[in-house]
């Protein structure tokens, strides 16, 4: 708002205010000059409308000035008294603005642009009107001293009711009107648009509704005219109040406001003419107070009912929208659920959700089919769940298995025998935990029938094992005959072709050595895969020291630099001694092998216990593993360094992985921060049992049980 516009608005409000003061003088009751209407409401709306005006100071000057001049022109009151009234009006208007913006900042004039929409808005406005009137009335009484009379506190209720009624009526109208003007462009665009909107609304309004409006207005106007126009001094206000209720519940809120204002005007008009229910009260001050209370009551009751209805309608509309959205959402969710159910049911793999108490809250037909032998577990020794080596899971083990699945299971293979598949099917179980907010967790279990895959793999591995084994004999013959031929050639006298023949035979010896390496690895691989695991407590430190010594001897014998070992404290592990040695030898051998020619291999081997597992780290200063191949090197025949003269078959780490997995451990490769690589292996820690010793010492002693002391588990056990 620019400065000029601000001043123009101030002038306009001042004119309206002067008009209101003059009209107020017309409502004076009796000869003592007590006006029924006072422009306190106009001042309140004025100051609310101008709260963001550029020339706000002008309002502070204009209001007292307008009041003083009007009073001077029409009455003989002293200028000081008139000015005091003006200042009181400014103060009152300011307090109203401040209280309204504090309680209902959303309303027009209080900082927002909204009209009153709920009874809460009305209570806010009423509270602000009361607060402002209390101050105004108190200051008004005190300033009477300026009329050279002592303050008369009996005027206080009169001022209070008059100010409150005025601010309530004009303030409510101002909030509705101000909001409509502010949002006019947004809603209608132009005056033409507004007309069209009104016309369209009128045309769309059913006839019975128009009839209802007309009927109610006619009846209530008639009732007010009779109630106040009669000289019979009948106390009919209660009838008029009930009409207010009817109007408020049936007609639109702005219309209720308009209706009540018109009716208030009728009531005031007749009362000042000495008619109506209040005219029989002889004390004019009491009469004025009663009229003000009646007007305020009609306005409050009417607006409270109308706004309560509006609020309920708004809430109902919001509820209806939310219900529609919810229904739509439910429909979408149901369609989604149907789709998911169809997908899950048509999956070849089994899927189920296991709840924390072990119950299945969801499972698809494939899940039931794949575990169809399981229901015979308790009753039939032939059907149920088995390990891959054919040993049957006991009830306790199944309970443990279930708990393990709820924790997290990765590719666990079990054999399920059922009447419809007597030879059994191998089912791979994968479970993913589903944590809940209450701290419990379910698990999503996925089953895959891997029978064919496993058989195929086993057949291939067996075939490789058999072939490798059968190749060893002819290879030994080739080796033997080559050695014999070399010995025979070395005894011959020099001949031009002799050196060439010896070189060819030496190459053939190297080729047969490489082939032997491959066959050895193939055999080791099948052993690592198939051989029974016999876990025992193994002194890891001793095994590592032994391998280190052997590797040092081999290097010195081969005229290579002796590797340097730093071996930390290594806790004992529970593992198959043969397979464990094979595992560590492979890893240490690789660490030495994959070191640059001119560098002395330096290995750091450390270990520590972490819960039930022991973690072993083998770090080297070698050539390192190429980026992105740290997982791939554990695959069969995968070689990360094919050039550079590093001999190998690509089976060593596959063997290591297999051995570790058969011990329920893990193996990973990473870059050594100081250069080279670092292989980390986890294996089960040695089993120890804690027994209480009641007599000897309080507390407990740790002893190693028989099995842990080195006695192997029953033969034939496979993990
Ligand atoms: P290989 O018979 O080739 O040694 P492995 O299975 O033992 O086969 O190892 C697979 C590949 O992993 C190797 O070819 C090599 O590229 C890489 N590798 C294994 N150990 C190490 C190591 N300590 N440092 C660097 N690379 C290694």
Automatic annotation (TrEMBL):
Class of this enzyme: transferase
**What is the originating organism of this protein?**
Actinoplanes regularis
Positions of the UniProt region annotated as Disordered: 698-719
The transmembrane segments are: 7-25, 81-101, 122-143, 163-182, 194-211, 223-248, 255-272, 284-307
Its UniProt entry gives the catalysed reaction(s) as: ATP + protein L-histidine = ADP + protein N-phospho-L-histidine
Would you tell me the protein name for this molecule? Sensor-like histidine kinase SenX3
Recorded hits in Gene3D superfamilies, A to Z, give: 1.10.287.130, Histidine kinase-like ATPase, C-terminal domain, PAS domain
What's a Gene Ontology MF term here?
phosphorelay response regulator activity
| Keywords in alphabetical order | Kinase, Membrane, Phosphoprotein, Transferase, Transmembrane, Transmembrane helix, Two-component regulatory system
Instruction: Please classify the protein's predominant subcellular localization into one broad category.
Output: membrane
């Amino acid at each position: 708002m620019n400065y000029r516009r601000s001043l123009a608005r101030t002038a306009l409000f001042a004119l309206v205010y002067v008009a209101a003061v003059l009209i107020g003088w017309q409502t004076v009751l009796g000869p003592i000059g007590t006006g029924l209407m006072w422009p306190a409401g106009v001042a309140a709306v004025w100051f609310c409308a101008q709260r963001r005006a550029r020339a706000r100071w002008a309002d502070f000057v204009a209001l007292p000035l307008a009041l003083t001049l009007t009073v001077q022109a029409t009455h003989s009151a002293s200028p000081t008294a008139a000015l005091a009234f003006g200042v009181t009006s400014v103060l009152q208007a300011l307090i109203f603005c401040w209280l309204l913006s504090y309680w209902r900042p959303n309303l027009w004039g209080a900082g927002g642009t909204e009209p009153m929409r709920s009874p809460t808005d009305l209570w806010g406005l009423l509270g602000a009107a009361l607060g402002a009137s209390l101050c105004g009335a108190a200051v008004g009484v005190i300033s009477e001293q300026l009329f050279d009379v002592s303050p008369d506190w009996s005027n206080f209720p009169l001022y209070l009711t008059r100010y409150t009624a005025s601010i309530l009526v004009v303030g409510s109208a101002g909030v509705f009107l101000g909001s409509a003007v502010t949002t006019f462009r947004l809603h209608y665009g132009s005056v033409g648009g507004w007309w069209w909107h009104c016309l369209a609304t009128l045309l769309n309004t059913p006839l019975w509704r128009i009839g209802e409006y007309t009927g109610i207005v006619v009846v209530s106007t008639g009732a007010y005219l009779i109630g106040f126009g009669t000289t019979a001094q009948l106390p009919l206000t209660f009838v008029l109040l009930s009409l207010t209720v009817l109007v408020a519940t049936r007609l639109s809120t702005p219309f209720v406001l308009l209706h009540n204002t018109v009716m208030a005007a009728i009531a005031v008009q007749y009362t000042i003419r000495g008619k109506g229910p209040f005219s029989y009260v002889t004390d004019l001050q009491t009469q004025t107070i009663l009229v003000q209370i009646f007007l305020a009551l009609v306005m409050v009751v009417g607006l409270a009912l109308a706004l309560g209805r509006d609020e309920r309608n708004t809430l109902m509309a919001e509820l209806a929208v939310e219900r529609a959205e919810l229904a739509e959402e439910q429909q979408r969710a149901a369609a989604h659920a149907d789709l998911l159910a169809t997908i899950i049911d048509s999956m070849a793999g089994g899927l189920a959700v296991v709840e924390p108490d072990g119950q299945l809250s969801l499972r698809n037909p494939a899940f039931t089919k794949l575990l169809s032998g399981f229901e015979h577990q308790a009753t039939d020794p032939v059907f149920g769940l088995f390990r891959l080596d054919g040993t049957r899971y006991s009830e306790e083990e199944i309970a443990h298995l279930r708990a393990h699945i709820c924790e997290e299971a990765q590719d666990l293979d079990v054999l399920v025998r059922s009447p419809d598949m007597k030879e059994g099917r191998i089912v791979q179980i994968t479970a993913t935990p589903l944590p809940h907010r209450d701290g419990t967790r379910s698990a999503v279990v996925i089953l895959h029938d891997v029978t064919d895959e496993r058989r195929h793999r086993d057949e291939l591995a067996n075939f490789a094992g058999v072939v490798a084994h059968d190749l060893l004999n002819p290879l030994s013959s080739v080796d033997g005959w080559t050695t014999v031929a070399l010995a025979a050639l070395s005894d011959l006298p020099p001949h031009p072709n002799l050196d060439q023949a010896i070189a060819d035979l030496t190459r053939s010896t190297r080729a047969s050595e490489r082939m032997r390496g491959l066959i050895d690895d193939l055999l080791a691989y099948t052993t690592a895969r198939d051989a029974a695991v016999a876990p025992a407590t193994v002194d890891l430190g001793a095994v590592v020291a032994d391998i280190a010594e052997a590797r040092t001897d081999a290097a010195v014998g081969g005229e290579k630099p002796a590797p340097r070992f730093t071996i930390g404290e290594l806790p004992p592990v529970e593992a198959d001694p043969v397979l464990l040695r094979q595992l560590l030898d492979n890893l240490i051998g690789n660490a030495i092998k994959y070191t640059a020619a001119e560098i002395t291999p330096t290995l750091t081997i450390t270990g520590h216990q972490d819960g039930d597992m022991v973690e072993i780290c083998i770090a080297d200063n070698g050539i390192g593993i190429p980026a992105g191949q740290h997982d791939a090197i554990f695959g069969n025949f995968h070689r990360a360094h094919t050039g550079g003269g590093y001999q190998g078959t690509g089976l060593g780490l596959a063997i290591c992985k297999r051995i570790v997995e058969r011990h329920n451990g893990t193996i990973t490769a990473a870059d050594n921060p100081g250069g080279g690589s670092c292989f980390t292996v986890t294996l089960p820690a040695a089993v120890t049992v804690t027994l209480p010793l009641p007599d000897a010492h309080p507390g407990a002693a740790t002893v190693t049980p028989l099995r842990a002391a080195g006695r192997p588990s029953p033969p034939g056990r496979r993990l």
